[in-house]
């Protein structure tokens, strides 16, 4: 892996993995704690419509996809706030419409587009240097917003109604973080693809949640786990010539099931110790 860093594309891939870990570790923790995984999935799949628009009109991928993702994110969030009990239906509709629009526009676009598979399954080794700068800026914005509004984020995540009573701008913060989710997804699609992006958004925070005692600790652990999964998956994909996005997700999935096994074993040991203590007390 060290030898591979002599190549520019590998250095770009490592930097992309680092910034993606920072962004998704923080944003993913907010998504998991607030149970917004389905909404994030809707945004990710609606983003495919942006890819279709970008190809059809010949505009840069970033602008077309970010525009559609933000529009879908704001619509979904507005519905989730106003009609929470029916929001899943609306999200599902936008999810399907975004995918369908992307497919149709790509069908209408003349020529063969060989890089479309990279949007579906990702290719961290093909992340351009320009995207690294975008991700660096997004990582900085994410950090600033999180630090500036951490107390409000904490209040929203555990009791949104009480946060409103305290004067916390709940709806505004939801829109800000959902916007960050939408923009983050656009860049991470380059790494792991549209189909797998939600796994990277949710697996590290889910694992971190089980070992953290606070939201801040959860975010830090999530960033750490995400970084481990990304770099390990990148190394394995490079060493064995595998698809990088899928390999990263499989490493994350292995970490997920390992964490479940550790927690199960720990609970069994705890129960065994309690039984042993009761027996010893009875004797």
Secondary structure class reads: mainly alpha
Largest sheet data: none
* CATH architect. name: Orthogonal Bundle
**SSE run:** HHHHHHHHHHHH
Rg from alpha-carbon coordinates: 21 Å
CATH class: Mainly Alpha
Find the CATH superfamily. ABC transporter involved in vitamin B12 uptake, BtuC
The total tally of domains equals: 1
Shape annotation? globular
Overall residue-averaged pLDDT value: 86
| Number of separate helices | 12
| Number of beta strands | 0
Work out the strand percent. Answer: under 5%
CATH topology grouping:
ABC transporter involved in vitamin B12 uptake, BtuC
Describe this protein's structure:
This protein has 283 residues and is an all-alpha fold. α1 runs antiparallel to α9, α1 (8-33) packs across α10 (197-211) and α3 runs antiparallel to α4. It is built from 12 helices and no strands. It has one domain: ABC transporter involved in vitamin B12 uptake, BtuC (Orthogonal Bundle), CATH 1.10.3470.10. The protein has helices at residues 8-33, 37-57, 61-82, 87-108, 116-121, 129-148, 150-158, 160-165, 170-192, 197-211, 215-240, 244-282. It is globular and about 80 Å long.
